[in-house]
Here is the input.
Amino acid sequence: MSETTMHESLRTKTFLTLARRLLMLGCVSLLLSCDIPYVAEGSWDVVYELPGQQRFGVWHISEEIGVKVEGELSLRIDELELAGSRMSWSANATNPLEPAGSVQRLNFNGTVNGNRFAGTLYTQSGNLTVTGTRQ
Here is the structure.
């Protein structure tokens, strides 16, 4: 291989490497500028598993407004964290396990898998399994 051919080959490799890097940078910039909704965002039909019974509700989840809970347990939650397929929230609310309805701190942690989610609602009186199906 002649010296001229080696230089041309090296220039071609350098150009291709630079072109790949620029293309990758462009793709990353494009993805970062997209407004991709979180997996958990949307409206969900929710089932609360209480000891010996089930209760039903609807959750409307949005990064901007938090969680709006409707049904037997109704409240608005702005302490929402969405991270990939995980979601968690906290709120002071009426305890769904107590008939008198004492107010206490509720915490939820769950995971979304496609059009379903499952998680645990932690209360001071015990924990509830919560499942949801996307509307």
Remarks:
- The longest strand covers residues 103-113.
- Strands lie at 42-50, 53-62, 66-71, 75-77, 79-83, 86-94, 103-113, 116-123, 126-134.
- Residues 1-34 form one domain.
- The chain has two domains: 1-34, 42-134.
